[in-house]
Known about the structure:
The chain is mainly alpha-helical.
Amino acid sequence: MPKEKFLLELKLRLKKYGISNSNQYINYYSEYLDDLIENDYTEADAIKKIGGVNNVFLAILSDNDVQISNTKNKIKAALLLMGIPVWGPIVAAGYIILLALVFAVMICSIAFSFAGLWLLLGSLIVLLKTGFIDFLFQLGTAFIFGGLGIVFWQLFVLSSKKTFNLVKFILLGFGIILLGILICIIVFAALGFDVNTIVKNSGNIYSPIGWSSHY
């Protein structure tokens, strides 16, 4: 870059961002470049040595003698633009992580909801084949998974858009979870908290298909 072009770009940059004593800096860098050129530097090498327009502009902004006339917002914008190579990838990585979390919450919601529905349908088979206690245990488990599905779905909705019914549905989800836990506690109480019996009965959890393989 020729010396004249460098000084012109620097002057325009300083004027644009309200550096009122810009001529002082233009004269300084003009003399500095002349000194370098007299010491056998080419114009391009001299400009490269002092760092180019962007580096010189930032150096001027940090100078104690710089005089700025009510352009703080413009300077902040300029600094932000110049910092894009630094903070741009960080912001992009943050968005990618957030999108991954939203996707993970959605997958959890689908998985818990499907499991809850599957166990709920299977509980009807349990009622017919093994008895009321096993039915209650599987029903409670179905409510727990179904409630978790509702909670995770509302968390997904919260992370993707605003909703007026968010709190209501989250409370509904937790209510269903508590109902499922209560049913399981009743089952445990009915079984006398016999661990061996609980483990034995846990093998009687059925899905809507394939239940006949247990017999």
